[in-house]
TrEMBL record:
Keywords: Calcium, Disulfide bond, Glycoprotein, Secreted, Signal. It comes from Schmidtea mediterranea. GO terms for cellular component: extracellular space. This is Sparc. Residues 99-217 form the SPARC/Testican calcium-binding domain. One of its GO terms (molecular function) is collagen binding. The keyword Signal applies.
Length: 232
């Protein structure tokens, strides 16, 4: 039977198995339309992730439906990054940087500290979740417990270790720099409700952000800067 041929076939997102072969979905399963979660990709709004996967499949296979009207003429590539989960909007126009600049780094640092507390409250364990909310490993718990109990000379009261920790958490390929895919892990959590985030990050580096540039953006005291080896 055709179904039997699909028993051991693993298709990619946006594909379905038919007679043992993967092909692009003709349409998304109805449950996607019942619970839509809009997302912004390259300035184009998709109804949900399934539409993005389906369109990407069409484009990968040079199908004539690639970038069709239902996808707003958008043609995704392998390097696409989800900017955030909401309808696209002009965040730069909503950012009043002149009034935000002086305190933005401090408020973001405090948010990072609170986010760390959330991670701490989640049970330890292995996780294939690449988001910033994935659980802490036991080893990381042990190292950060002692590091973050130290006093800080930061004027906003957040030890520099927290900022180094989050940089290292986002640096998934461990190359010492945050690329646009890794930076998107932060944008997906905070945007579009934090319209000045992109402006702030753009001032930390063009395209990629190094650990030293990251620490400089947050005005981390030199004595509190930490290498990623402290958390591995």
């Amino acid at each position: 039977a055709a179904q039997d041929k699909c028993a051991n076939v693993q298709c990619k997102d946006g594909e379905v198995c038919d007679a043992g072969k993967c092909k692009c979905m003709e349409q998304c399963p109805e449950e996607w339309n019942n619970y839509p979660r809009q997302l912004c990709v390259d300035g184009k709004t998709y109804r949900h992730e399934c539409d993005l996967w389906r369109n990407k499949c069409y484009c990968t296979k040079s199908d004539s439906r690639c970038g069709g009207a239902e996808f707003g003429s958008h043609k995704p590539t392998d390097s696409i990054v989800v900017q955030y989960f909401d309808a696209c909007r002009d965040l730069a126009a909503q950012c009043d940087w002149s009034s935000e600049e002086a305190s933005f780094h401090a408020r973001l640092a405090i948010w990072f500290k609170d986010l760390y507390s959330q991670k701490w409250s989640v049970a330890s364990g292995k996780s294939d979740d690449l988001s910033l909310l994935s659980p802490l490993s036991l080893k990381t718990r042990a190292s950060t417990t002692t590091l973050f109990n130290a006093p800080t000379s930061s004027p906003y009261g957040v030890h520099g270790g927290y900022l180094s920790f989050w940089f290292c958490e986002m640096d998934k390929n461990n190359n010492g720099n945050l690329d646009r895919t890794e930076i998107a892990l932060l944008s997906q959590l905070l945007n579009p409700s934090t319209p000045c985030l992109n402006t702030f990050l753009s001032k930390c580096g063009s395209g990629t952000i190094s650990l030293s540039a990251w620490n400089s953006c947050f005005k981390v005291p030199k004595a509190e800067e930490m290498p990623c080896t402290n958390f591995s």
